[in-house]
């Protein structure tokens, strides 16, 4: 085996990382040539390695960071919480952070979704929404509704249940025999009318067997930032109502202001029956996910019989530290009027993106709020994403393309100067890879 490549100065543990740590979403052998970046600290939109090199976190560390690394306000809230209560079980017990967080999120939905169920990872939130829908129909004497529908190119997480409603072959292919596959319906990203027509046909044929339709509102991120209009969601909501099928909005990536409104569903003027949140909700600090749902769903489980309850739990359900980080995050949204300042920031990002659009290797330039993406025609197709990632590091940028799609999903703290710099450096990387 060749010597793995990494930035090692000042950290004797770095060399051992590849032996002991099995990294996520990674073919480990690629690290024989791909650098492993050993981080020492983060500050604002920047990450710093042990050689003192810096990287602008252009993808919010896998879409989770909202207000920068080592944010003083979130840090202060966590330090305070640490001295009060680090964790306790949420069955039979409660604590102020989880109550406040649930109330504030309910208020943000105008109390349409007034009940919050907690977990730690996004995939768990998806599984909770699927199970709650399934169990709701059983509790309301429609136990034959056991199937699910998802969109072509959908991504809802990588646990076995979530893979059943995921349609990205790189994640599902090896595990085909392990899960029951949902109905896969055309995505509006490839044409809204055809997508709605296919959904109607499915619901006419199987609606009495289908528990829920699950979608990523406005942007299907993991398949390569496939964007579609809010009008699809408005019409999908009406279709789900017509056929008595639940609508699950997986806002794990697109929620928390990422697409312009706090919840992406707001842009369609609808509420789903289940709304999944994770990633940005804790500001990118701690694992936290949750499902918001309606009085109707909640009441179908509310009964003297234990087995009619939702008997689902995770050890760290409603962790106080994670909830406190989320509360501090929501406070920043209010104090700094983040949705308004992001409109201007998104405008600047759009201007930087327009400069890239002129490059002959760049196509399909697109943007929705704080998500910008474009496709690149690479000089060498094989290993493009890894080559781009490596060249970007040379330009002090953390960017991680999906296939040929390069995207920016930065924290909501970039200054105008940093946005200009991001545009110039990204162009330099495109020129080296195209
Ligand atoms: C990231 C993501 C998930 C899974 O969340 P994890 O915390 O990685 O389990 C599910 N759905 C969408 C839309 C996501 O972007």
Top keywords for this entry?
Aspartate Aminotransferase, domain 2; binds pyridoxal-5'-phosphate; 434 residues; 14 helices; alpha/beta; 7-stranded mixed beta sheet; 2 domains
Look up the CATH topology of the largest domain.
Answer: Aspartate Aminotransferase, domain 2
Task: Extract low-pLDDT stretches.
Answer: none
CATH class label of the largest domain: Alpha Beta
Helical/strand content category? alpha/beta
Order of helices and strands: HEEEHHHEHEHHEHEEEHEEEHHHEEHEEH
State the domain count.
Answer: 2
Ends distance: 30 Å
What is the CATH architecture descriptor of the largest domain?
A: 3-Layer(aba) Sandwich
Mean pLDDT: 96
Q: How much helix, percentage-wise, in residues? A: 25-40%
Order of strands across the biggest sheet? 4-12-11-10-7-5-6
Give me the number of helical elements: 14
Strand count: 16
What small molecules are bound in this structure? pyridoxal-5'-phosphate
Largest sheet: 7 strands, mixed
What proportion strand? Answer: 15-25%
The CATH homologous superfamily of the largest domain corresponds to Type I PLP-dependent aspartate aminotransferase-like (Major domain)
Cα-atom Rg, whole angstroms? 22 Å
